[in-house]
Amino acid sequence: MRASNTPAEATAASPSTLPLARTFTAEPGDDRPVLFISDLHLSPAIPRTVAAFEQFIRTVAREARALFILGDLFEYWIGDDELASPWTAAQCALMRSLAADGVELYVMHGNRDFLLGPRFAAAAGATLLHDPCVIEIGARRLVLTHGDALCTLDEGYQRFRRWTRRPWIQRGFLAWPLAWRLALARKLRQRPPPTQSYNPAWDVTTEAVNALFRAGACSIQVHGHTHRPARHREAGGERWVLPDWEMDHGRLRGGYLRVDMHTITCLPWPD
Ligand code: MN
C-alpha cells in the first residue's frame, strides 16, 4: 500500500533540523505549568503595562516551572549597556528573582530587542533561546519562534532582518556611541505597528508556517509578533499566536499561554 502523505505523518517521518532547547518530563508531585508570553514592548513610557508585567512576574509566573518570553519583551534594546538605566536594571532584577523560586526563565529575541546579549541574560537570570527552537513538554513537541521570520511577504523587512542578525554587523553597531544607537532605534520604531490596520505583508504566510512545522518535526507551534492572538489549525498542526500586552493605550489587552502535561490554554491578563 502506498504511504499516505498527510502532513502529520510527513512531520513524524522527518527528523528535526532545529535545536532542542529543553525537555520537561513529568515529575511526580510537580504539576506546575510552562508559561509563554511575548510582545510586551516594555519601556518607561507605558507604566501600566510595566506594572502588569511586574505583577505577572510576582504572582502567576512564580507558580510556573518555566517562563518563556518569545521576543519583544522590550520596546527596543540597543545593547547591553542599557543595563546602566535604573529602570532596566530593576526589570532584570525582578526577572532574576524567579530563579530563587525555582522558575526557569528563557528569552528569545524579537525584532525590536534582538540585541539582548549575555550581560542581559546574566542580569535577568535568563537563558537566551535560538529562534526558532524546539522544546518538549511531556509527550508534546513545540516549535517556538518570535514570528517575524514567518512574515515572508515583507521582503524588505526580511532583507533587513538577515543583515541585522549577522554577528559582524551587530559588533559594528554595538561599537557605535550610545546616542547614535538611540537615534537609529527611534527611526526604526517609526514603522507603523501591525495593530493599527491589517496588512497581509505583516502576517505570517502558510508556506513559512508549514515549513517550520516540518523543520521542527512538531505539530504545535507558538509565536507572537503579529499581535493577532489566536489558535489556528494549519496543515502541519496547531499554531498558537500569543497576544501583545497593552494596558496604557486603546483597548486593554494581554495574556499568556499555559501548557501543562495534558492541556494548552490561552489566558487573558488582566482578567
Ligand atoms: Mn515583534
User: Within the largest sheet, what's the order of strands?
Assistant: 1-6-7-8-10-9
Tell me the number of structural domains.
Answer: 1
- Quaternary state reads single chain
Strand content: 15-25%
Rg calculated over all Cα atoms: 18 Å
Number of helices: 8
- By CATH reckoning, the class would read Alpha Beta
Uncertain parts? 1-11
Question: What percent of residues adopt helix (DSSP H or I)?
Answer: 25-40%
Alpha carbon gap, first and last residue? 52 Å
General description of the model:
This protein has 271 residues and is an alpha/beta fold. The protein contains eight helices and twelve strands. It has one domain (7-268): Metallo-dependent phosphatases (Purple Acid Phosphatase, chain A, domain 2). It has helices at 7-13, 47-58, 86-100, 118-124, 155-164, 167-174, 178-188, 206-216; strands at residues 20-24, 34-37, 66-70, 104-108, 127-129, 133-137, 140-144, 220-223, 230-234, 237-241, 255-259, 264-268. Residues 1-11 have low confidence and may be disordered. The protein binds manganese (II) ion. Residues 39, 71-72, 110-111, 146, 148, 225 line the site of manganese (II) ion.
Summed up, what is this model?
With 271 residues, this protein is an alpha/beta fold. The chain has eight helices and twelve strands.
Which structural traits does this protein have?
single chain, 271 residues, alpha/beta, Purple Acid Phosphatase, chain A, domain 2, 6-stranded mixed β-sheet, 8 helices, 21% strand, disordered N terminus, binds manganese (II) ion
